[in-house]
Specification:
This protein has 430 residues and is α/β, with parallel strands linked by helices. The protein has helices at residues 60-64, 76-94, 149-152, 155-163, 195-208, 252-265, 287-290, 303-316, 334-337, 353-360, 374-386; strands spanning 7-10, 16-19, 27-36, 39-49, 105-106, 114-122, 125-131, 138-140, 171-179, 182-189, 212-217, 223-227, 233-235, 238-240, 275-279, 295-300, 320-324, 342-345, 367-371, 390-398, 407-413. The radius of gyration is 23 Å and the shape is globular. S-adenosyl-L-methionine binds at residues 249, 300, 346.
């Protein structure tokens, strides 16, 4: 299986060939397409000998070619083993070979609380959904086994609303975050919102129970178009008011699994005064539970996120100090890292190469790295391997079920790069 969820074969001349919807061990007939840098893509024509792990996809849109999922046709246990192997391979490429990786913690389907829908107008019709696999076409969504049903239930009414919204000329997007106070909607459109549009949005929000609807031009900043009540979510019991479209962990269960793995990776007693740095802290998803273990300094570059985190921390009374800082341009130096007994970082998809290089040369007793991209994890982990650090825990977390994505929580500690300690197993469905 290739990293993107395509079956991987090899042409007679040695060229890698990626066959969408094919599975490891199968014999298939496929039509090779255009060559690309890493090989060629192929279209599945016929399955000659199916894998015993092939299952019927639970969602009808997968059969139609929806690109939101990649491996619905693969048995859940096989998906979990593949994602566990991806994390092990990423660490191995970095220089941490034969590291014990815990079984994948798999979160339930139907629990995704965040969706970024594409919008497309075609005459009187409005399409809302995800792009078709390998295409810019928007597949109109009527069901989804991955999303929380409350988000899917909003789509018919949203289609009706958008038919009359002049700001949507041809295309746009709709980000829905399911907060504790209801669905929070951010619309991005290729036209300007009119006064009539604002009235329509306010009426829609009132009818559908949306606390807030925000709007933004295609590449511009968001503004509140209709505010009907507070838009808040509790993170580890702390009420936070996120900005429209703010990043949330994909599901409550995924968030809980990441927190459990991070806390399990910390030593039972932190050295010194127990100070913890939370880098790329976002809204405080990890900062607030970490405050039960020590005094937390949370660093985040996004102004809206750090403002929400700071306000929530102030109301909570927890020992969390929020600091705005662009860690890609201004990573913490070795001197700044020295007071911390532990550093936790949850970087964006591209990783944290600049910060990791300095962490690897620091004297921090433990670094817990939360990864959402095995390629970035592998690249960043090389700095720790080169500096002689060990991996003491590695836990894959699948909160993007049926996709090719996998999260991982990795604990690094200074020392000889010998055989790492055993990884901690976490409760969860594997």
């Amino acid at each position: 299986m290739g990293a993107a969820g395509d079956g991987l074969s090899v042409l007679p001349d040695g060229t890698p060939c990626f066959v969408a919807r094919a599975l490891p061990g199968e014999s298939v007939r496929a039509l090779p397409g255009a060559r690309r840098r890493e090989g060629c893509a192929a279209t599945l024509v016929e399955i000659l000998e199916p894998s015993p792990d092939r299952v019927a996809p639970p969602c009808p849109h997968f059969v139609e070619g929806c690109g939101g999922c990649a491996v619905q046709h693969w048995a859940p246990d096989a998906q979990a083993a593949w994602k566990q192997a991806q994390v092990a391979e990423a660490l191995s490429r970095a220089g941490f070979r034969d590291v014990p990786v815990a079984p994948t913690v798999t979160t339930p389907a139907g629990r995704r609380r965040r969706a970024d829908f594409a919008l497309r107008r075609a005459g009187p019709a409005i399409r809302i959904g995800f792009h078709a696999a390998g295409s810019g076409e928007v597949l109109d969504l009527s069901a989804c086994t991955v999303l929380d049903p409350r988000i899917v239930a909003l789509l018919p009414a949203l289609r009706g609303l958008l038919r009359g919204v002049r700001a949507l000329r041809r295309e746009g997007s709709a980000v829905v975050n399911l907060l504790d106070t209801g669905p929070d909607l951010l619309l991005r459109t290729d036209g300007t919102l009119t006064a009539e549009d604002r009235v329509a949005l306010a009426g829609f929000g009132e009818r559908q129970g949306l606390p807030r609807i925000a709007w933004a031009p295609k590449d511009g900043a968001a503004e509140a178009a209709a505010q009907l009540g507070p838009a808040t979510i509790a993170l580890s019991g702390v009420e936070v008011a996120p900005a429209p479209g703010a990043f949330l962990q994909a599901s409550p269960e995924g968030e809980a699994a990441i927190i459990a793995a991070v806390l399990a990776a910390l030593p039972a007693k932190l050295s010194g005064r127990g100070r913890i740095a939370d880098l790329h802290a976002g809204l405080g998803t990890l900062s607030f539970p970490l405050a039960a273990r020590g005094r937390v300094t949370a660093f985040e570059g996004d102004a809206a996120a750090i403002a929400a985190l700071s306000a929530a921390a102030g109301r909570s009374g927890l020992s969390v100090t929020a600091t705005r800082r662009d860690l890609a341009r201004q990573p913490l130096t070795a001197t700044e890292l020295a007071p911390f007994a532990a550093v936790v970082l949850d970087p964006p998809f591209a990783g944290a190469a600049e910060q990791v290089a300095l962490l690897a040369r620091s004297q921090v007793p433990v670094v817990v790295y939360v990864s959402c991209n095995p390629a970035a994890l592998s690249r960043d982990a090389r700095a720790f391997a080169a500096a002689g650090w060990r991996v003491t825990a590695a836990t894959p977390i699948d909160q993007f079920v049926h996709s090719a994505q996998v999260e991982a929580v990795i604990a690094f500690t200074p020392g000889r790069a010998a055989s790492p300690g055993p990884s901690r197993r976490l409760p969860g469905r594997t």
